[in-house]
Write a structure and sequence with these properties.
The chain is of the alpha/beta class. It has a domain of about 250 residues: 2-Layer Sandwich (Nucleotidyltransferase, domain 5), CATH 3.30.420.40. A hairpin with a 3-residue loop joins β1 and β2. The longest helix has 28 residues. The radius of gyration is 23 Å and the shape is globular. It starts with 7 loop residues before the first strand and ends with a helix. The mean pLDDT is about 95. Keywords: Kinase, Transferase. GO terms for molecular function: D-ribulokinase activity. Belongs to the FGGY kinase family.
């Protein structure tokens, strides 16, 4: 038997632009990590595609790298998370291209909005399954993408396809040969609803009755909660690819954001004087902030307009998940900063300051712009931004909304760039407040935020989230919480922990708590009132222009 201290789990995270792996100890410490880029092609506007063969290949590279220094037998389990992209394979499990001449490019990416029109049609059909997605079908879910393939690439893609996988399920299939899908993917992105399962009338109503064949074999006949041990563990072939032992336990996968949720939301918070300390896990919201952001809360089943869920067992087995989100967050900050006239000047100055990147430089620069003892936040009092440059996921569920900036002048200095950056971060934090209010109105009682992901490493982003919402923010001890969450799946599958709840409590740890500055309460109260008017006005402008 193993000395429990010497056992490890591998977490693999397939993000938008890279694959990462980590070797994680029994108590959730990351021993080492590795990262490899993956290609993104944009064959035409709003079409974003990848290759599942390339993605698996990169998974193998990073897993080999992180397990180099340990005995294979010490690796007790492996878990995968990935973006909720759509993988298409034929009956021999070979790639089926998802564009006209796509060769091996058989993955429709999560952020691909080619199926916006199909999504709108599915929404207007108004089927009961829509209740669980806040009433609106997002073009980032799978049914509209499947419908797009049937309507636009019937011969080359739809008729060839025998297996449609969510990317996290493709990875676990590749590792174990098991076709069992995770409830995380099927429930969140495919309208599956336990215990009843698929709703025949939905697929028939939207024109995809072909999927009912053979007990839904193309999209998944068997399901299990995340972290369930799949098949016989790693197959000979996958074990050779990954450099691990055959039979190593593999846990059913999670979508990347949900892995981040698992990596933070269950942490033991005793001793940090947090309002959620003596409250159930339902008083916590996990925010996974990267290219886009997801807002995860678990509870009894609550229906929140414009917020996805309630989804049973989609993140924590046996609990219902509500999931809000913002379609462009890290991507929006980059877009605003890099598109500004003073960006080259910013780059030059950041390069001259040792150890600074553009964001640490901007944060320091804002502090120097603020008056002696006044908060940086107050610099944003006359520049207001509505952040839906890529539409609104929650709580308005309106993909047609656009971004707005109010308060621009003719000046384009570095100071102006810094202020625009500040206003963008403030708008994103107010967007989180908007989602929180929608959740509160339907019965959620959230008292503490748990942040992880790339943006959680930006102290300004974190502090403004605390200030704008009035809630304390918990940062994880391991900044790569998504990788911890993926490793939790492997730990659970290995049966070293008996449940996901037990594994996440032992493996997720609090690193730091950021308290809100209560003196800014009235400032953010006013700024939030402006924020809410912005979208109301945008809709009025549209109505005026539509009125002929």
């Amino acid at each position: 038997t193993h000395l429990k201290s010497d056992c490890y789990y591998v977490g693999v995270d397939v993000g938008t632009a890279s694959v990462r792996a980590a070797l994680v100890t029994r108590d959730g410490q990351l021993r080492c990590t590795a990262e490899e880029p993956i290609s993104i092609w944009e064959p035409q506007a709003d079409h974003y595609v990848q290759s599942s063969s390339e993605i698996w290949d990169r998974c193998c590279t990073v897993v080999k790298r992180v397990t180099q220094g340990v005995e294979k037998s010490q690796v007790r389990g492996i878990g995968f998370d990935a973006t909720c992209s759509l993988v298409v394979l034929d009956q021999n499990f070979h790639p089926v291209p998802v564009n006209q001449n796509g060769e091996q490019r058989n993955v429709v990416m999560w952020m691909d909005h080619r199926a916006a029109e199909q999504a709108a049609r599915i929404t207007s059909a108004g089927h009961r399954v829509l209740r669980r997605v806040g009433g609106v079908m997002s073009p980032e879910m799978q049914p509209p993408k499947l419908l797009w393939l049937k309507e636009n690439l019937r011969e080359s893609s739809w008729k060839e396809a025998a297996h449609f996988f969510d990317l996290p399920d493709f990875l676990s299939w590749k590792a174990t040969n098991s076709l069992t899908r995770s409830l995380c993917t099927l429930v969140c992105k495919w309208t599956y609803c336990p215990p009843d399962g698929w709703d025949d009338s939905f697929w028939t109503a939207i024109g995809l009755e072909d999927l009912l064949q053979n007990n839904y074999s193309k999209i998944g006949s068997l399901t299990c909660p995340p972290g369930t041990s799949l098949g016989q563990g790693l197959t000979q072939e996958a074990a050779a690819d990954l450099g691990l032992d055959p039979g190593t336990a593999v846990g059913a996968s999670l979508i990347d954001a949900h892995a981040g949720g698992l990596g933070v939301i269950g942490a033991d918070v005793r001793g940090f004087h947090l309002p959620c300390e003596d409250q159930p896990i339902t008083s916590r919201m996990a925010m996974i902030c990267g290219t886009s952001s997801c807002h995860m809360a678990v509870s009894q089943p609550l229906f929140v307009p414009g917020v996805w869920g309630p989804y049973l067992s989609a993140m924590v087995p046996g609990m219902w998940l509500n999931e809000g989100g913002q379609s462009a967050t890290g991507r929006l900050i980059d877009h605003m900063v890099k598109g500004h006239a003073a960006y080259t000047q910013l780059q030059e100055q950041a390069q001259q300051s040792p150890g600074e990147n553009i964001y640490t430089f901007l944060n320091t620069h804002l502090c120097s712009m603020a008056k002696a003892d006044s908060a940086v936040d107050l610099l944003g009092s006359s520049l207001h931004l509505w952040p839906d440059f890529h539409g609104n996921r929650s709580p308005l569920a309106d993909p047609t909304l656009k971004g707005m900036v109010i308060g621009l002048s003719l000046s384009q200095t570095l100071d102006d760039l810094a202020l625009l950056y500040l206003a963008t971060v403030q708008a994103l934090a107010l967007g989180t407040r908007h989602i929180l209010e929608a959740m509160r109105e339907t019965g959620h009682d959230i008292t503490t935020l748990f942040l992880c992901g790339g943006l959680s490493k930006n102290p300004l982003f974190v502090q403004i989230h605390a200030n704008a919402t009035g809630l304390p923010v918990v940062l994880p001890d391991q900044t790569e919480a998504v990788l911890v969450g993926a490793a939790v799946l492997g730990a659970c599958a290995s049966q070293d922990y008996s449940t996901i709840q037990e594994a996440m409590e032992k493996m997720a740890k609090v690193g730091k708590v950021v308290q809100p500055d209560h003196e800014l309460q009235s400032f953010y109260e006013r700024k939030y009132q402006v924020f809410l008017r912005l979208f109301a006005h945008q809709r009025e402008y549209q109505a005026l222009m539509d009125h002929r």
